[in-house]
Amino acid sequence: MMLKNIRNKRWIIISVCMTIFLILAISIIKAESIIIDDIGYNLISKYLISDFMTPIVKIVTQLASPIFLVILTILLMVFIKNNNIRKYICVNLIVSTILNFGIKNIVRRTRPEGFRIIEESGYSFPSGHSMVSMAFYGLLIYLIYKKVDNKYLKNCLIFLLSIIILLIGLSRIYLGVHYTSDVLAGFLLGISYLIVFVSVINEKF
């Protein structure tokens, strides 16, 4: 009964996330930007953007760059001895990246213009940094939850990685390379993908 309830909750979360994702996708296909895009950027530009914060945000956003994630994955391969975990981390990064690339090329939304702090190429929806960070760091959170026995260390690492995911998403809006809806869609898709991925590998632990 408990296992059934857990599975039901997972499908409910996926259903909610994908419903909101589809609403966002349909909305941005009909219009170049939607109301949450203006609200999100206006809040960040009013309260966060400054000469002090910009260099920090540029560093934060690199935590989900392809080069950094590849390097981090290689380092994890060196220090993690469990072959299954090593395989899952690699497969997760590859599949989430391909999935994001595929959806971007279906929707083909152009990036915001006029207030970019950095330059980025490619399409905008959904945010690759947001989706892949949710999938990659989210999987690490799951593995830490399952494998780390020290409760204090476990909670600290989970909190830190959760904050990193959130900050990466915010950094994309701050830097002007994504709309708020891109980031939200990336998170929603990343959560849905992660739940499915974890459900598949959970039987191996």
Question: What features would you highlight for this structure?
Answer:
76% helix, mainly alpha, 205 residues
Poorly predicted tracts of residues: none
Number of domains: 1
Question: Counting H and I runs of at least 4 residues, what is the number of helices?
Answer: 8
Query: What is the overall shape?
Result: globular
Oligomer: single chain
The end-to-end distance, rounded to whole angstroms, is 20 Å
Largest sheet: number of strands, sense, barrel closure = none
Q: Work out the radius of gyration.
A: 17 Å
- Average pLDDT confidence is 91
Count of individual beta strands: 0
Strand content: under 5%
Structural commentary:
This protein is mainly α and 205 residues long. It has one domain (2-204). The protein is built from 8 helices and no strands. It has helices spanning 2-30, 35-47, 53-61, 66-79, 83-107, 128-147, 151-174, 180-201. α4 (66-79) runs antiparallel to α5 and α6 (128-147) runs parallel beside α8 (180-201). It is globular. The two termini are 20 Å apart. The mean pLDDT is 91.
